[in-house]
Amino acid sequence: MKIQIWANLGVKNLERTEEFYTKLGFKKTPGQKSDELTSFLFGDDDFVIHFFKDENLKKAMKSDLSDLSKGNEVIFSISAETEAEVNDWAVKVKDAGGNVFSPPEGFQGMYGCAFTDPDGHKFNILKWK
Question: What is the CATH number of the domain that holds 92?
Answer without folding.
Answer: 3.10.180.10
